[in-house]
Amino acid sequence: MNRPKNHTSIGTAPRALAALSFWAILFLPASAGAQTGSHKEARIRVQTDLVTVPASVLDSTGKPVADLPESAFRLYQDGVEQKIAKFETQTDRPLELALMVDSSLSTLKDTKFENEATARFIRFVVRPGDLLGVFEFSDYVYELGDFSANVAKLEAAAERISPGAGTSLYDAIVLGSEQLEKLPEDRRRVIVLVTDAGETTSKSSFESARRAAIASEGLLYTILIRPVANENGRNTGGEHAIDTIIDSTGGAVYYPDALTQLDAMFQQISRELRTQYLLSYYPQPKEKAGTYCRIDLEIPSGSYTLHYRKGYFEAGPPEEEPSPNNGPDNNQ
Predict the structure, then answer these.
(1) DSSP class of 227
(2) Which of the listed CATH numbers 3.40.50.410, 3.40.50.1100, 2.60.40.10, 3.20.20.370 matches domain 16-39+94-273?
(3) Are 262 and 117 in contact (CB under 8 A)?
(4) What does the pLDDT look like over 191-247, one tens digit per residue?
(5) Rounded distance, CA 171 to CA 164, Å?
(6) pTM of the entire structure?
């Protein structure tokens, strides 16, 4: 496949041309200009002492709850309660969002509805000051453009999504995480992953993907497309891998049973990201460099569902992890 010169690709082999899939059409309304350059290995971010925890609180109907006081929360690290140093309700900190689209998905129907649902998500979630990047992955991972708040550019770049053969799920998580790490700090970071959870062609391992996602300090939201409701024919191993990563990073998984549910799920993610609390603390005691620190957030009174950042690596030297596959250089 010939790609415009300003596209960056990461993968293992030349992409196979195939019949246009649902996801190639679904994400026509989204993306930005492109970026070149090699992608480094997953690394541990150097942490400051202050740990920031973005959190969404949902009631029993799944509606975000936005009016809780600081006193309603209890915050723990590795089982030890922490003093909340800073607290923001409905934070207005900008978003940095990597939208990762599995372009190897099986074909679905209703192209018009799919396009409209995706366009509404991008248009609703991107606000001035935010940065959103669109990626596609199959046998390669492609960053289709620079992170941007320009919705028109986001829509234009996503028109370049095209079908591929394999599925480099772990490489996609590594690349999206590394690109988020390159963006300005003191922002909220999110990966939105749309996939059937298949994994066939990554060079990166599950553990390198998990560590990269944690190091990015981003939440992972996944819309998981299951071809069938029962386990036969489903990528249950990939589903479990995503659940495990989210248990380390925070976020949520959504399982649409029908195409018409996509719009509601995109809207749910958008509402959560726009109705977030921000809690910060200075961890006591300090762990040694390289230690994974588990965060637990609770609301003792009431029945709520919480989606929040669930851990981080204490500052330390990076461990060696496999880097994503380097695909053909389309800039030459």
Answers:
(1) S
(2) 3.40.50.410
(3) yes
(4) 999 888 889 899 999 999 999 999 999 999 998 877 666 555 567 888 999 999 999
(5) 15
(6) 0.78
